[in-house]
Design a protein that fits this description.
alpha/beta, Rossmann fold, 6 strands
Length: 221
C-alpha cells in the first residue's frame, strides 16, 4: 500500500495548538437542505473543523427556535465562544416563521432582511480582504473570514423573507476563495443547483418528534 493510501502514514493524529492559518483550497459553495435533522449540526461541525485548523470562520444565523422546550441559549453558542477563530451572530428572529410560536411575523420579515444585508456586508468584507493569508483568530469578521456559514438562510428564502434571486446573486458575487455554506429549508432549492458546488439533501427516515419527543438539550439545542 502506498503512502497516499494511508493518511499520516498510518500514524494516529494528535491535537495541536491552534495557530492562525489560511486554507489552500477553499472557495466552494455548499448547500444543505432537507426534512431531516442535522443540517445545522453538520455545517457547524464543519465550521469547528475549519477553525481547528486555524482558519477564520463566522456563522450568521437567520432564525432558530420555535418550541417552548428550547432554551434561549444553545450549546453551540457556548462552544463557539470557547473556540478561537470561530464566531457567530443571530440577526434573524429567534423562533420559526409561520409556526405560531408566539413570535411576530412582521419581526421575522424585518430581521431576516437585516440578516441578509449583514450577509452581504460579510461577503463584501471577504472580497476586500486577502483570503490567502491568515487572520487574527479573535479578529472582527468584518476584516475577512475564510468560511461563512449562513444558517437557515434557505428557510428564510423558502418563506419569502429574503428573495431567492438575491441569494443566488450573493453566491455569484462572492470572492473566489471564500467557502460559503448555506443551510435550511425542507424544500429543494432548485434555483441554486447550478451555482452550488456541493448540495446535500438531509433526509428524514425516522424522527422521535413524530412520536411526541420534544427537543432535547444537548442534541437539538
Amino acid at each position: 500500500m502506498s503512502d497516499r493510501d494511508t493518511p499520516g502514514r498510518g500514524r494516529t493524529p494528535e491535537p495541536r495548538e491552534i495557530e492562525p492559518a489560511a486554507p489552500e483550497s477553499f472557495g466552494l459553495t455548499q448547500v444543505w437542505w432537507g426534512d431531516g435533522k442535522g443540517k445545522t449540526t453538520a455545517t457547524l461541525g464543519m465550521a469547528f473543523r475549519a477553525a481547528g485548523h486555524g482558519f477564520r470562520v463566522h456563522v450568521l444565523q437567520f432564525m432558530k427556535g420555535g418550541a417552548d422546550s428550547v432554551e434561549d441559549v444553545r450549546g453551540e453558542y457556548n462552544a463557539i465562544a470557547a473556540l478561537p477563530g470561530l464566531s457567530y451572530e443571530n440577526l434573524g428572529h429567534y423562533g420559526w416563521h409561520a409556526m405560531n410560536d408566539g413570535t411576530e411575523e412582521r419581526d421575522h420579515e424585518a430581521e431576516a432582511r437585516a440578516g441578509f444585508e449583514r450577509a452581504k456586508e460579510l461577503v463584501e468584507a471577504a472580497d476586500a480582504a486577502d483570503l490567502t493569508t491568515p487572520f487574527d483568530l479573535d479578529g472582527d469578521p468584518d476584516d475577512g473570514v475564510h468560511m461563512l456559514v449562513l444558517d437557515e438562510i434557505l428557510y428564510a428564502a423558502d418563506r419569502g423573507l429574503v428573495d431567492s434571486g438575491a441569494v443566488l446573486e450573493l453566491i455569484e458575487d462572492k470572492p473566489e476563495s471564500l467557502e460559503l455554506v448555506l443551510s435550511g429549508s425542507h424544500s429543494r432549492p432548485g434555483y441554486l443547483m447550478e451555482a452550488a458546488d456541493l448540495v446535500t439533501n438531509v433526509r428524514k427516515e425516522k424522527h422521535p418528534i413524530d412520536a411526541g419527543q420534544r427537543a432535547r438539550k444537548g442534541t437539538e439545542y
